[in-house]
Automatic annotation (TrEMBL):
Protein biosynthesis found in the keyword field: no
InterPro entries xrefs: DCAF (IPR051859), WD40/YVTN_repeat-like_dom_sf (IPR015943), WD40_repeat_dom_sf (IPR036322), WD40_rpt (IPR001680)
One BP annotation, GO: proteasome-mediated ubiquitin-dependent protein catabolic process
Gene3D superfamilies attached to this UniProt entry: YVTN repeat-like/Quinoprotein amine dehydrogenase
Organism: Haemonchus contortus
The keyword Nucleus belongs to this UniProt entry's keyword annotation: no
A GO term from the CC aspect: Cul4-RING E3 ubiquitin ligase complex
Protein name per its UniProtKB record: WD40 repeat domain containing protein
Region (Disordered): 90-116, 606-631
Amino acid sequence: MGGWFSSFLTLRTFIYPSKQLAIHSIANQNPDPFVILSAAAEIAALHRRMEDTLTDCPIAGGQMLQEEAGHSSVNYDDTDLEDSVSSLLRNEKDETSSSDEDALSETACPRTTQRRRQEMFEMHLKMSENSKNGRMYIGNPETFQDLREDILCLCNGLSTASTSIAKVCCQREISRPSGGKSMTLGTKTKILNQFLPNCRRIVDKLRSKSFCCSYIKGGEELVVSSQDEFIRFFEQRGPRDRYLLKKAIRVPITTWSILDVAVNRRGDALCYGTWKDSVFFARLSECTSDNPSGVSWTELPVPSQEASMAIFSLRFSRRGHEVLCGGSDRNLHIYDLESMSRVVSISDAHADDINAVCYGDTDSNLLYSGGDDGLVKVYDRRAFGEMDYQPVGVFAGHRDGITYIDARGDDRYLLSNSKDQTIKVWDLRRFSNEEAARKTVNCVRQQSWDYRWQPAPRCTLIPLKGDTSVITLRGHSVLHTLVRAKFSPSRTGKKYIYTGCARGEVVIYDLLANLSSPTDGSNPNPVSRRLPGHVAVVRDVDWNPSSNEIATCAWDGVTAIWKWDERHDHVTSSELNQIGAEDSCDEFYQPVVKRRKAVQRRLKCTSRRRNAARTGETTTESPNPELLYSL
């Protein structure tokens, strides 16, 4: 039976006749090469998925399949495989007939429906239940030792002073009369790190995906961009500092979604990118009769030879007078906002799409870029005056494309998040050689999976030869979109790296997780905290630079703020996911309710009757029962 059914499965014309004929008829009706290539891509993807199913599901009854998480064995027979194939065909039919526009970004990828995304999300949740622990790999012990000592200095880790809040407050009161300092910065940082955010407060809910969120004006306001063509500004108002909608700006042009938004430090200018060969810049001013919205848009065209181009990443310079951008044209562009012109253009900066750009140092002279070729490149603007547009250094070691880059702010370290499900920290004093860069590019080219609609394959833990990264972190999931990871702000001592995750959570890594054994090659658990709560991929996260809170935006349309609350560990609420349900900092707080103290009321009534019987008096009970407030 197994041999007959396996031979039947090899006849793919019997399995996919309607699918192939349907695509073939569409291609014949429309001779457009673009449509033909799209149909061919769907056929190829369908065959790849069928091959994966045949590989993962053994037909012979004696073969066993070890599950990754539970390590339990399961027997498969012909009936199970028939059900699996039928389910696969039904899913393909649903995906083909769906009107979801998620594949509009690149038509060479099969359409991914909401049902398919939900199935992948649930699958990764099951995987994460058995893999809560992350891993940290030290690439260079000497460089990591320098990074560790820097963090310890910022966190007062080299001193033996107590971090007990009671003792610190007592010492502060004692030293004040003598003119001493109330509390050192290191002590404040060390105490603050004991109260990482743990509870969520929902700020906004949308029916469309949210792509970007960031704090502006020193953490006073929050900017969120979504797929519904709006950029929303939230500000803290009221006695409890809730985030309330200040204004919503509708962008002039959007193709599929707003891919990235950047706001300058003063908060009076912004720019965004979408699937168009232009950067859209706007000045934010007060509303007037001539300009009711208070927004003046300017389109900065990006020369491109491609029919469809996207701007994936944007950054303002520190002074706010320039914008650095990168996209699918593989070029880096710098625009001067005073002359509204392009002043720098680096052709073929990467061999594939540029997904992330970043200014490296405080003077905005160093430029970082990361692309789908798996490389992180460093450019020095001071060399551009001599018409030298070659990178001054390259970081190689990832096995797949880069999704985000963030600088630590000390002109030395930076991190990169990648589709190979890892985060790497790099040192500007240790670049990779040409051989390592070549091996990285070749390794990326050998990748045959698409992170937008396929689950992540098993990744090897062996580093590439020539990998010069300081540390490598693993424990989060990068799927569907360009998930972002960042360093924690200065008030935390820059001790943490936090990232979004395709499992709908925020993952916070502690860079001092292996403090007890920094050089013995061990793999401790670097995950300091996980913040689950979203039901879709968390694309962007941002830590408030002046407050102990983290903002998240996800593809479930929810924008949330995470804060620390001592009630989270022992109080839960039956009313979840309610905006502004109670005056607490989280959505899990159980509100104060009225309830009748029946037992106490009966005891009081019994006592009154006894007293009345002794004295011979008659008493009347109050018609209104007593109401007491309690938690």
